[in-house]
Amino acid sequence: MKLLILSDVHGNLAALDAVLAAEPAFDRVVFLGDAVDYGPDPSACLRRLTELDPVWVRGNHDNAVARGVDCACSEATRALSVASRPFTRSVLSPAELEFLGRLPTEATFTLGGLTFYATHASPRDNLFEYASPEDDPESWVEAMNVAPGDPDVILVGHTHVPYVKELGRRTVANPGSVGQPRDGDPRASYAVWVDGRLELKRVAHDLADTVSRLKGTGLAPDIVAALARILESGRLP
Length: 237
Fold this sequence. Notes:
Elements: E1 2-6, H1 13-22, E2 28-31, H2 42-52, E3 55-56, H3 60-67, H4 75-91, H5 94-102, E4 106-111, E5 114-119, H6 137-144, E6 153-155, E7 163-167, E8 170-174, E9 188-194, E10 197-203, H7 207-215, H8 221-233
Parallel strand pairs: 1-2, 2-3, 5-6, 6-8
Antiparallel strand pairs: 1-9, 4-5, 7-8, 9-10
Helix pairs in contact: 3-4, 3-5, 7-8
């Protein structure tokens, strides 16, 4: 059994398509939120993800775009999110906005005899907490240990930094970001679970195409330049 684990596409269709080309066969997909915001192709990314029929949870940027509220994202990217959100909302249909706003913030499912718990940020705060096993391991352990239902595997996104960690008998994994990695590697980041083993994976995609499409969105040149620097470096400003 193979599970394809995706998160944080952020409107980057070239990155999403590169992952799907690299992983053409799977039994199920889980998407950990943030299909939209920042990137040039939010509607196309939503359509592509919908075709996969994933286990799907709402991210903080999905929430902000759909409901017209603050994303509560990091200070380093807040201005970029605010600047790109009007474009994102303008190209999404009312049905797409409603769909994003109705997504659950957590999900539990079984695969291969194991119970999986999925959320965007953390079990303690589904939408907004930046829980990091490297930056604050004690808080991270506390956040993961409140996952409901005693799952075998906990899947989270939001930080754009991939990891696989063991926490007691549980495995906790963050697949990183498909569309906007922030760990210093600009390649699309994702994970696969195959017969009980989790693996982090990377694939290169056409960065120039994404940047070119950003220039066609009507976003201000300084916003496009800042987003391009993140995409090309795999790091925050």
